[in-house]
């Protein structure tokens, strides 16, 4: 059985951390794997870590024992695979995703209400899965979690390309926002029929997109533009080109063929 651990790099791509071949996916194997992983990366018992996995009991046990301070979330795709067995169809899939992807509780409750109008039983099954473990609206905001190295070396921007693209899409929404200042750092922003509060000093917004991603939402961008400031400087440092290059400054040792392995 192949066990692996991956993370997201500053350009929102998957980055391999460690892998190992074990006799099977059981308690001993997962605990050994995570204990070895701890030797390779700073961990502080999981503080400031976010672990995302399926609901395999051996993984849950190993994380609890080896990284007790980590925030452990479930993979929504695995939750959906089980939930979908009883509630099929494209409409139910879209309702499920709307609940999962909602950034704040207001949007989450609206999505749940819409699902309940279609099939109340589906809502009961959804809630039994533990939405606080796999829905975005319940995620803690402290940690920001939504190219080849040579290509990034040539990149001239401050931010990684995918992050810059995400920020540019938020800039396009600014024309639909009306900004009303409260103080030099706090603003009321009207966006369509919604009214939100933005605090650019603490980098938060009622919609929670900025809080969770570390990338200003359109409401934050509108407020920053109101002050004639540079939006890119308000993006979390973890998304910078410098942070990306640091992530890849190490190397993976070459592997020689079996013919050259030491003989017992």
Summarize the structure.
The chain has helices at residues 27-40, 57-66, 76-83, 90-101, 105-118, 120-128, 149-154, 161-171, 209-213, 218-226, 241-247; strands at 2-8, 14-21, 50-53, 71-74, 177-181, 186-191, 194-199, 204-205.
Q: Let me know the number of strands.
A: 8
How many domains? The number is 3
Describe the main β-sheet briefly: 4 strands, antiparallel
Determine the fraction of residues in helical runs and give it as a percent range: 25-40%
Q: What is the overall number of helices? A: 11
Structural class: alpha+beta
The average pLDDT value, as a whole number, equals 87
Radius of gyration, taken over Cα atoms and rounded to an integer in Å: 22 Å
**What is the strand content?**
15-25%
Which descriptor suits the 3D outline? globular
| Terminus-to-terminus distance | 25 Å
Spell the H/E element sequence: EEHEHEHHHHHHEEEEHHH
Low-confidence stretches: none
Give an overview of the whole structure.
The protein is of the alpha+beta class and 264 residues long. It has 3 domains: 2-74, no CATH class; 76-138, no CATH class; 149-247, no CATH class. The chain contains 11 helices and 8 strands. It has helices spanning 27-40, 57-66, 76-83, 90-101, 105-118, 120-128, 149-154, 161-171, 209-213, 218-226, 241-247; strands spanning 2-8, 14-21, 50-53, 71-74, 177-181, 186-191, 194-199, 204-205. A 4-stranded antiparallel β-sheet has the order 5-6-7-8. It has a two-stranded antiparallel ribbon with strand order 1-2. A two-stranded parallel ribbon has the order 3-4. Strand 1 and strand 2 (14-21) form a beta hairpin. Helix 1 (27-40) packs across helix 2 (57-66) and helix 5 packs across helix 6 (120-128). The protein is globular, with a radius of gyration of 22 Å. The protein starts with a strand and ends in a 17-residue tail after the last helix. 25% of the residues are buried. The model has no long low-confidence stretch (mean pLDDT 87).
